[in-house]
Amino acid sequence: PYQAKGLLRACIKDDNPVIFFEPKRLYRASTGEVPEGDYSIELGKAEVVQEGTDITVLAWGAQMEIVESAAEQANEQGISCEVIDLRSI
């Protein structure tokens, strides 16, 4: 929810045409604190969610939950995963 609001605000403020995809699955599945104030998350800049040294896994949106779970399972088998949330393309 924090990222959704920040990215949507950035899209609204951007002078360029933007397409904003919202997976409805996240409406009920994702919870979290969202500040009431105005803030934006920079478009075109990914977030490194987890540092890792063996492989890098990229995803965005609803797939992040699945990728983070897979990275956790890989970690249990001794594979260090870097997880990157693309956030915008």
UniProtKB/TrEMBL annotation:
A family per Pfam: Transketolase_C
UniProt-listed InterPro entries: THDP-binding, Transketo_C/PFOR_II, Transketolase_C
Keyword field contains Chaperone: no
Keyword terms of this UniProt record: Oxidoreductase, Thiamine pyrophosphate
Cofactor list: thiamine diphosphate
Transketolase C-terminal domain sequence ranges: 44-89
Organism domain of life: Bacteria
Molecular function GO terms recorded: oxidoreductase activity
Protein name: Alpha-ketoacid dehydrogenase subunit beta
Taxonomic lineage of the native organism: Bacteria, Pseudomonadati, Pseudomonadota, Gammaproteobacteria, Alteromonadales
